[in-house]
Specification:
This protein is an alpha/beta fold. Helices cover 29% and strands 25% of the residues. The protein contains seven helices and 13 strands. The chain has helices spanning 16-25, 47-55, 72-81, 92-101, 105-110, 120-125, 161-176, and strands at residues 3-7, 31-35, 62-66, 84-87, 114-118, 128-131, 143-146, 154-156, 181-184, 189-193, 196-200, 203-207, 210-213. The strands form three sheets. Strands 3-2-4-5-1-10-11 form a seven-stranded mixed beta sheet, with helices on both faces. Strands 8-9-12-13 form a four-stranded mixed beta sheet. A hairpin with a 2-residue loop joins strand 12 and strand 13. The relative contact order is 0.18.
């Protein structure tokens, strides 16, 4: 049963409840495979995202970055063997193009690894998502992008909902009739394991033009005990 974490962005580190959940889930800590959000730049190295894991004492024996410096066959092998896959935040479009260009979707879907994505990475874990000029993307027309499709919904992550909720509602209204959309801002996350969905922080569900703020999960069971 695949476990996925759709993360927002964290001003400091993971909240305690989220860190505890991740610590319980991530029992295999052999290999962390990071998928770049700007694969042409060596400067995009996940330092911030890795600091969240380090602060939570979730450390790995091996760390691997997937970008254009890694050939496609090796990238697929690393994903197959990964304990955890982490799609970085940053440039959503560049990351999406890279995932399709390197044909990584099936490799991520079929991997036994826990999959994390922050901001852009969480969006690209979606089944599909709307790339719109009214939502900060440097494009001229709105386009639906296909994501990794780890779950059958869309995600809008790390967007200034408090200031732009009216824009979000208007821009995603038609799309919300086609697919459920989970919206989150900073310091929040969505954990999905099978049919179970756990909420950390301020997360909203936009479906059939109806916006609902979801209650936070206070307690839940994981498949495995915490690591020793």
């Amino acid at each position: 049963m695949k476990t996925c974490y759709y993360l927002g962005w964290f001003n400091d580190f993971f909240p305690t409840h989220l860190a505890d959940a991740l610590s319980r889930d991530v029992t295999d800590r052999q290999s962390l495979v990071i998928v770049s959000s700007d694969p042409g730049s060596a400067e995009v190295n996940g330092v911030t995202e890795l600091s969240w894991l380090q602060e939570s004492e979730i450390l790995f024996q091996h760390y691997h970055m997937i970008n254009y410096e890694r050939d496609q066959a090796e990238a697929k092998h690393l994903l197959k063997e990964a304990s955890v896959i982490f799609l970085l935040g940053g440039d959503t479009v560049k990351q999406n193009q890279f995932i399709h260009e390197y044909d990584l979707i099936q490799s991520i879907q079929q991997s036994d690894a826990i999959v994390l994505g922050s901001s852009a990475g969480a969006i690209n874990m979606s089944s599909s998502w709307l790339c719109s000029p009214n939502m900060g993307y440097d494009v001229t027309t709105s386009t639906i992008f296909q994501g990794v499709a780890l779950n059958d919904f869309s995600v809008l992550s790390h967007f200034d909902l408090e200031q732009h909720m009216h824009v979000v509602k208007q821009e995603l209204a038609s799309f919300s009739e086609e697919i459920s959309i989970y919206l989150s801002n900073k310091d929040c996350a969505l954990r999905v394991q099978g049919d179970q969905i756990d909420i950390f922080g301020n997360v909203y569900l936009y479906s059939n033009r109806n916006m609902t703020k979801l209650p936070e999960t206070k307690s839940f069971a994981t498949d495995s005990p915490p690591p020793l």
